[in-house]
Write a structure and sequence with these properties.
Blueprint: E1 2-5, E2 22-26, E3 29-33, H1 40-46, E4 54-56, H2 68-77, E5 86-90, H3 94-105, E6 120-124, E7 131-133, E8 136-142, E9 150-155, E10 160-163, H4 171-176, E11 182-186, H5 195-198, H6 203-213, E12 217-221, H7 229-240, E13 244-246, E14 252-254, E15 264-266
Parallel strand pairs: 3-4, 4-5, 5-6, 10-11, 11-12, 12-13, 14-15
Antiparallel strand pairs: 1-2, 1-14, 2-3, 7-8, 8-9, 9-10
Length: about 270
């Protein structure tokens, strides 16, 4: 199983880097985790957006969802349009969320109800259930965030990666990530005192979460470039003690591989 970073910025894209988005591939199965603003150019450079197996959304904040809008236009009007609808799995409340966006954007008499449904097969997942997409299984766990948000554990039968989405420190989420080959953890904050109130982490807290999870490798994401990638990595390493990387577009992590390709890391 491979993970390729599509974005990795926090609430606003960093220079040359979009927000939350990650491509997971395994034996022909291709799933995108979150679809934040600015990830679509990287995704389109890597793969045919029309043939993705699914997109899964962790929560309904704009920095995790907004590229669903240009993706909708590309699927509907771009060359090579087909009748296939791309499966998109939304958290509870996601259908109503997209209906509100459609109501604002639908024009020229186009029914708002068809705005997304014409190109996406929309489903609200049950966070208490296991989702199977191709060769991958996905489990969910609630995080500690400003709105309902779900971490995801993706397994291929041999290896596992855990995407913690947005969260404040919580032992429950660390236990959910226990033993993962790769933990993708946010590093949004500069001051730990804000963690509980805004539902985010510092880089050091991300390292502490990865250490508690006994993860193999930590990937820092959802960060502001102004905080400095080297500084974030050093703070997380000090708390984690294991390998730490910082998300940049196109960075690829090969779970369980003895050798990583050019520009890639082994997790």
């Amino acid at each position: 199983m491979d993970l390729t970073v599509l974005g990795g910025a926090a609430a606003c894209p960093n220079p040359a880097q979009g927000c939350a988005g990650y491509l997971v591939t395994h034996e022909g199965t291709r799933v995108v985790l979150d679809c934040g603003p600015g990830i679509l150019p990287v995704l389109r450079d890597l793969t045919d957006m029309r043939t993705l197996d699914a997109i899964i959304i962790s929560h309904l904040h704009a920095d995790h969802t907004l590229d669903l809008v240009p993706l909708r236009y590309g699927l509907k009007y771009g060359p090579g349009a087909t009748d296939r609808r791309l499966p998109v799995f939304l958290p509870p409340g996601g259908l109503a969320f997209l209906d509100r966006i459609a109501g604002a954007l639908a024009t020229d008499g186009e029914p708002a109800g068809d705005f997304f449904e014409s190109v996406f097969a929309l489903t609200e997942y049950d966070p208490a259930s296991v989702l199977t997409i191709g060769t991958l299984t996905i489990r969910f766990h609630p995080t500690r965030h400003a709105i309902p948000c779900w971490a995801m554990r993706i397994e291929d039968g041999e290896h596992s990666l855990v995407y913690l989405a947005d969260t404040a420190p919580t032992p429950d989420v660390a236990r959910f990530a226990h033993g993962a080959d790769l933990v993708i953890c946010e590093a949004t904050l500069n001051d730990p005192e804000f963690s509980a109130t805004v539902g985010h982490l510092t880089a050091r807290q991300a390292g502490e979460m990865a250490a508690a999870a006994e993860a193999r490798t930590l990937l820092l994401t959802h960060y502001w470039v102004e905080l400095g990638r080297d500084r974030l990595r050093a703070e997380a390493m000090d708390a984690f003690g294991g390998p730490v990387e910082v998300a940049t577009p196109y960075a690829t992590f090969k779970l369980g591989s003895d050798k990583a390709g050019d520009g890639s890391s082994t997790a």
